[in-house]
């Protein structure tokens, strides 16, 4: 009974190497899934990788739009927990009690540009995508929650599920081209989440005490960017 029954089967260096291999494998699978979502909408693999790279780099870039007077003291914390996730809040060092409203390049600007391109490239899909946008906006607005110090946050999976289901229903009988449901899912997911989570809640920003309310950033980077990607992968 004195024999050791619990022990490491490998040396510590081998375990670290296996952990590194696992991390790289998971990362490659993640990037592969994201790239696959873009190729389903008609982009080449090289274009998909470029869009993905720009989106990830742009996730750290917030372009200021305007400032508004905060009705409550501005929170100085840099990390906020919401819906089981921890978000890093971009903090502007200022002595004034103001909230800076900004747009996140990777989380909002690039997805909106991609959506605009898809609507132009597939004009026959536009009516379905716009109806899907309205549906997702209503669903997202109903589940979006204002988080003190952060802004507007959304659950990760409800908006993409709404985008995927609406795309399947809208395109099942009336849109025969193969890209139709993918474009409808992506555009509806991106624009619907942007409208439902951010634009329809701009009037609530001044009550949250957030130093920076980033459209498409912090709590909604996953909401806008990932909604479109996950919706395409589901359909």
TrEMBL record:
Sorted UniProt keywords: Membrane, Transmembrane, Transmembrane helix
Transmembrane segments: 7-31, 43-66, 101-120, 126-144, 156-177, 183-200, 212-234
Official protein name in the record: DUF1614 domain-containing protein
UniProt source species: Methanothrix harundinacea
Alphabetized InterPro entries for the sequence: DUF1614
């Amino acid at each position: 009974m004195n024999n050791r029954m619990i022990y490491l089967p490998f040396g510590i260096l081998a375990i670290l190497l296996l952990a590194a291999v696992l991390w790289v494998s998971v990362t490659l699978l993640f990037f592969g899934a994201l790239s696959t979502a873009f190729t389903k909408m008609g982009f080449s693999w090289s274009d998909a990788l470029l869009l993905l790279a720009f989106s990830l780099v742009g996730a750290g870039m917030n372009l200021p739009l305007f400032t508004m007077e905060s009705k409550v003291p501005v929170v100085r914390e840099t990390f906020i927990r919401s819906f089981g996730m921890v978000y890093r809040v971009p903090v502007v060092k200022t002595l004034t009690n103001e909230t800076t409203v900004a747009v996140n390049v990777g989380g909002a600007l690039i997805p909106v540009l991609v959506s605009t391109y898809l609507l132009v490239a597939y004009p026959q899909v536009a009516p379905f995508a716009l109806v899907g946008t309205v549906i997702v906006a209503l669903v997202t607005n109903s589940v979006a929650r204002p988080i003190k110090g952060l802004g507007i946050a959304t659950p990760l999976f409800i908006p993409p599920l709404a985008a995927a289901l609406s795309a399947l229903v809208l395109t099942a009988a009336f849109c025969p081209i193969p890209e139709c449901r993918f474009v409808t899912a992506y555009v509806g997911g991106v624009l619907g989440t942007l409208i439902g989570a951010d634009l329809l809640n701009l009037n609530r920003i001044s009550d949250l005490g957030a130093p920076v309310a980033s459209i498409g950033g912090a709590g909604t980077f996953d909401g806008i960017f990932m909604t479109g990607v996950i919706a395409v992968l589901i359909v």
